[in-house]
Amino acid sequence: MMTISKNVKYTLTIVLLFSTMMTYAQKSMKKAEKLMNKYEYAKAAELYETKLNFAKASDKDIRNLAYCYIHMNNTEKAVKYLANLVEKGSATQNDLKIYADLLKQEGRYDEAISIYTNLNDDFTQNQITSSNLAKEWIADTTVLFEVENVKDLNSKKLRFFFNKIW
How far apart are CA 103 and CA 42, in angstroms? Predict the structure, then answer.
């Protein structure tokens, strides 16, 4: 009778587990895309995150994850994943525009300007101008208006008065 060594058994077990995980990952990516098409970005993002934790994700998966976070208005995480594509050299022109826009939203104007400069089209020239203006406005500490509390109008009881009217 032929016996199989322990090393072969372990190797076969590992190969079987790995192939099962890869099949599951592929199916979950198809499910994530379907969820994105149904505007269920949070659920899709969860599936993409799971894959990123267990296997190497494709550029498409990373891009889709970033877009999920964009639609969920989580710019911090969207920037993280688009930065991943930029670092790998896999970002498309559209990815770069979106990445720069997100950096601008995050207040990272110099980084956004650097990317806009490399894109160099009419749209990005306007974005460079607006980023520079935003930096100027933030740096300008001139007080234009003085707001003071008018106690007769801003009392705790006044709020209840308006609730009764509407």
Answer: 22
Residue 166 has which token pair?
A: 């509407």
Short-list 62, 72, 112, 69, CA closest to 92: 62
Residue 50, both tokens: 């799971």
pLDDT band with cut points at 50, 70 and 90 for residue 32: confident
Range 8-165 classified under CATH 1.25.40.10: yes
Please tell me the distance from the alpha carbon of residue 53 to that of residue 22, in angstroms, as a whole number.
13
Evaluate whether 95 touches 124 at the Cβ level (below 8 Å).
no
- Residue 79 banded pLDDT, cuts 50, 70, 90: very high
Domain boundaries, the chain: 8-165
The answer to whether residues 131 and 113 touch, using CB atoms and an 8 Å cutoff, is yes
Both tokens of 39, joined, read 């505007």
Q: Shortest CA distance to 48 belongs to which of 12, 81, 85?
A: 81
Residue 14 or residue 83, greater confidence: 83
Contact 82, 99 (CB under 8 A): yes
Task: For residue 66, give the nearest of 34, 94, 38 by alpha carbon.
Answer: 94
Matching residue, tokens 């993002």: 45
